[in-house]
Write a structure and sequence with these properties.
Structural class: alpha+beta
Radius of gyration: 12 Å
Largest sheet: 5 strands, antiparallel
Strand content: 35-45%
Number of strands: 5
Length: 73
């Protein structure tokens, strides 16, 4: 995953107790564009800052929770 990639919230492989929240987030936010990558959280883990045009907002999310749907050049 790199800056400029088009991503969406991953719902595959989510446990049942997390799946409905992931589906809701995916519906509300839609696809997003990766703006930056960094180590964040506690403990530190790879995260990306994503701009979601549908919502008009940016959010930081763990890389493991999103999937690339179109790679940038």
């Amino acid at each position: 995953m790199k800056v400029g990639d088009l991503i969406i919230r991953r719902i595959q492989d989510e446990p049942d107790w997390k799946r409905s929240a992931a589906i809701n987030q995916r519906d509300l936010l839609g696809c997003g564009i990766v703006l930056s990558k960094a180590m964040a959280g506690n403990p530190k883990h790879p995260c990306v800052t994503v701009f979601y045009p549908k919502a008009g907002k940016s959010y930081r999310i763990a890389e493991s929770l999103v999937e690339v749907i179109n790679e940038s050049w």
